[in-house]
Amino acid sequence: MIFRMKCLKKIPIGLWLLLLPLVAQSQTSSPYRVDENQMYGMYSGLALLMDVHYPTRPNGYGIVFIAGSGWHAPMGYNAPPLKGIAQTLQYVKPLVEAGYIVFAINHRAAPRFRYPAAVEDAQRAVRFVRYHAKRFGIRPDPIGAAGGSSGGHLVSMLGVLDGNELRKDVDPVNRESAKVQCVVARAAPIDWVLFKEKGDPTGMVSFLGMMPNFVNVDSTTVEYKTYNEAFPLYHVSKDDPPFLLIHGDADKTVPFENSEKMEQALQKVGVPVKLVPIPGGGHGATFPGAKNPPDYLGEMCRWFDRYLVIK
């Protein structure tokens, strides 16, 4: 891929590390039937697209997948689509082999779009899939979601937010629920406060469009309220779906404590949750630095088999 260097030079080092997977990975072809560029919505004339991956032997269940990008996308016509990078295929492939129809989505991203745009798009994708469930050959009620890093944050939000139907909306798609029934989140930013002393807050600051005050925390400020609203930990409740959390314990971008804190919060309200640590694993889809990592892709598939599929 060729990008305008004058644009890349303006990207802060921390944010560049989050964007690197997008720049380095070209679109990778899938060994399965893929219906590309299906439009699940349109915002101000901008098409929101997804690729639908079909298994040879579908089991009748659908999963929305969101790749990690630091909530960002390079600005330019040649920016690689999030739904088509190698990271996406790495996680989608085993799910498709297990019989799931997977909906890999693009979403609005910073710096052009700020919170809550990406969350709204993720919710729109779930509503779209649910509304068109018969067309896709899946059950409309139990829908799963999986994602990593910023994508892990977004699928976690799909699990913890109410996702209520917009009953009076003129678009029938928006009258569907955006709540998912099972979540797998890899290295997800869960609590903004944890970035005070560890990790790299660059991406979330750009995503939110405002700086958090880590020193003098004032719960009355717009910044404090917005950050709490934007992160999954502050929405956990007993009606949330089962969560599988996968995280490298040597992650220096999104601290491992994020998943530990989410595990504790979900356990406290009685929601099924499992944390799979990757010893020595850093931040990235393949957990760089990990030695003899557990079968995290198998764990993902088994989690959906256990909690998404109706027996």
TrEMBL record:
SUPFAM superfamilies per UniProt: alpha/beta-Hydrolases
Keyword annotations: Hydrolase, Signal
UniProt-listed InterPro entries: AB_hydrolase_fold, BD-FAE-like_dom, GDXG_lipolytic_enzyme
BD-FAE-like domain span: 50-266
Top-level taxon: Bacteria
Keyword Manganese annotated: no
Classification via Gene3D superfamilies: alpha/beta hydrolase
Signal peptide coordinates: 1-26
Name of the featured protein: Prolyl oligopeptidase family serine peptidase
Organism of this sequence: Spirosoma endbachense
Taxon lineage: Bacteria, Pseudomonadati, Bacteroidota, Cytophagia, Cytophagales
